[in-house]
Amino acid sequence: MKGCLLFFIIMLAAGSIRAQTIVTDRPDQTESSSTVPRRSMQIESGVLLRFTGDNLFSVKQLLIPTTLLRFGLTKSIELRVFNQFERINNQINDKETKGFSDLEIGAKINLLSRADINTEIAIISHVVLPTGAAGLTLNSVGARNTLSVSHQLSKNTAIGYNFGYNHSGAGKGELTYTLAVGTGITEKLSVFFEPYGSLNAFYHKVNINAGLTYLLKDNFQLDFSLGTGVNHPMNFASAGFSWLMHNKPDNKN
After folding, report:
1. Separation CA 53–CA 165 (nearest Å)
2. Distance of CA 221 to the CA centre of its chain
3. How far apart are the C-alpha atoms of 211 and 228, rounded to whole Å?
4. Under CATH, domain 2-245 is a member of which superfamily?
5. What phi and psi, each to the nearest 5 degrees, are found at residue 148?
6. Which of 91, 149, 193, 253 has a CA 20 to 30 Å removed from the CA of 9?
7. Where are the domains of the chain?
8. pLDDT digits (tens, 9 = 90+) for 88-123
9. In 106-249, which ranges are continuous DSSP H helix?
10. What is the pTM of this model?
11. What are 156-186's pLDDT values in tens digits?
12. Quick check: helix, strand or coil at residue 7?
């Protein structure tokens, strides 16, 4: 797994950035600071396979599908709905849990988009509703909140980073952070590398993630990514697509 991530880092150093008409929140952990166009719908969906623990006591998690729906309400506001079907095999207690997770409903608001300073800022907030199956639900209302910032550093380099706070309805919550660096190998093929982590009262988890996207059409993108834990046993692989369904452009805010 770490060898595959090194390969992606080498690719990252060799490329040059390319413009795309579709901007997605997958496959990296960093939420983009861009909103979808007004009155347009974007579907971002995929499959993720994650392993945690060691060879003796492992947990296998399959998410199929994991789906985010994004709808452009105005030029700077999008509405968001997220849900996924999970199947978890726990080798520790030899138990399988499956069903839909808690439903998340929220919005992304673009606060700043300045081409002259190559910076974009947005806030993203979701309410987590306890609608999930037994063993997959928080059993209470939770929240996920994120500040998203991106910079076009040069013609060849762009970065995005998030700072977040998640609360499950009990306890003190969890701080999160991400930093994604992306570049284009060709006009259609792009790669990224990303460290990210979470911090709560008990532990600080550090991870790395890398992957690629391929633009089939201006509004349809395929993706693939790999990730691993730095200070804890975790590996994952993910593949998916994003599809922007345009509406007629207008000049309204």
Report:
1. 25
2. 15
3. 12
4. monomeric porin ompg (2.40.160.40)
5. -115, 130
6. 149
7. 2-245
8. 999 877 889 999 999 999 999 999 999 899 999 999
9. none
10. 0.88
11. 779 999 999 999 988 889 999 999 999 988 8
12. helix
